[in-house]
């Protein structure tokens, strides 16, 4: 199975550092208390995954994360019969395990998954909160401790990959975006160990490059790339080399666009 899973033990894990942009922590907690599923929208690398791991740890909930991809089918989430030493045994998938045991199940980039995944999510995301397992004949009722969180990036503008309204309207949604300058500087500095005064020009450059999104660039510089860039500088690379490696090369393969980005970078950070 081509899944990228990670599990955190309840209560034990340190709470991952997260700087809130608004009331999202409060919203998450209320959604959790009222058993409402949550949808996080926003560009790549702006803190969605970090937010979920922060909140799960804060609430002492086990977290199971699935990175969805275009080959991910419902059975990868629910489970399947597998051959084990001559016998066929049912093996729960990550979603089924979370429904049985409680905890947060986070489906990252849910629109990437195959269409049959929506069929599984629908009965779990209305007031029935059930997971029917056709293959075993069971119908599981989600316990109060179960919460479904999904994320997607509406910016890709791929009509085939948009989330259907019938699915979208089953979730409480939070929109994520890159944080305001001062907060982003604080995050990048905290994550990379580079002093804020050295981080500030990088954030200025990122903000400038983000305005080029849609014209020359498909995606703007993410907070994640800023953290990479600052980490490289903190480790001794020159700003020019770090910017090229972490803020220009990952954004484009087009030589002309690359040249344009270099010029913008050179004007801001000589
Ligand atoms: N609000 C925030 N607080 C702390 N770190 C953040 C925040 N937003 C982004 N980051 C940093 O950016 C990185 C990428 O964020 P991530 O949650 O993986 O993005 P996404 O899931 O939206 O693609 C994180 O590993 C973290 O270093
Ligand atoms: Mg993510």
From TrEMBL:
Alphabetized Pfam families for the sequence: AAA_5 (PF07728), CbbQ_C (PF08406)
Domain of life, per lineage: Bacteria
Record keyword Nucleotide-binding present: yes
Keywords, alphabetical: ATP-binding, Nucleotide-binding
GO MF annotation, one: ATP hydrolysis activity
Domain CbbQ/NirQ/NorQ C-terminal: 184-267
Domain ATPase dynein-related AAA: residue ranges: 37-171
Keyword Membrane: no
Protein family according to the UniProt entry: Belongs to the CbbQ/NirQ/NorQ/GpvN family.
Protein name from the UniProt record: NorD protein required for nitric oxide reductase (Nor) activity (Putative Chaperone, ATPase)
Native source organism of the sequence: Pseudorhizobium banfieldiae
């Amino acid at each position: 199975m081509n899944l990228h899973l990670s599990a955190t033990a309840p209560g034990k894990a340190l709470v991952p550092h997260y700087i809130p942009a608004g009331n999202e922590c409060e919203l998450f907690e209320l959604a959790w208390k009222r058993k409402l599923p949550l949808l996080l929208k926003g560009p790549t690398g702006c803190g969605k995954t970090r937010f979920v791991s922060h909140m799960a740890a804060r609430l002492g909930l086990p977290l199971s994360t699935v990175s969805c991809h275009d080959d991910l089918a419902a059975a990868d989430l629910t489970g399947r019969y597998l051959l084990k030493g001559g016998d066929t045994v049912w093996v729960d998938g990550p979603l089924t395990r979370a429904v049985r045991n409680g905890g947060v199940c986070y489906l990252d980039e849910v629109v990437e998954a195959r269409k049959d995944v929506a069929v599984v999510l629908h009965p779990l995301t209305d007031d029935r909160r059930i997971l029917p397992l056709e293959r075993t004949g069971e119908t599981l009722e989600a316990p109060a401790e179960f919460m479904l969180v999904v994320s997607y990036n509406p910016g890709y503008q791929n009509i085939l990959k948009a989330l259907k309204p019938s699915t979208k309207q089953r979730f409480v949604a939070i929109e994520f975006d890159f944080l305001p300058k001062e907060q982003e500087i604080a995050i990048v500095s905290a994550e990379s160990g580079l002093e804020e005064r050295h981080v500030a020009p990088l954030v200025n450059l990122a903000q400038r490059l983000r305005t080029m999104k849609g014209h020359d660039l498909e995606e703007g510089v993410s907070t994640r790339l800023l953290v990479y860039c600052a980490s490289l500088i903190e480790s001794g690379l020159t700003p020019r080399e770090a910017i090229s490696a972490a803020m220009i090369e990952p954004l484009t393969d087009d030589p002309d666009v690359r040249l344009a980005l270099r010029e913008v970078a050179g004007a801001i950070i000589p």
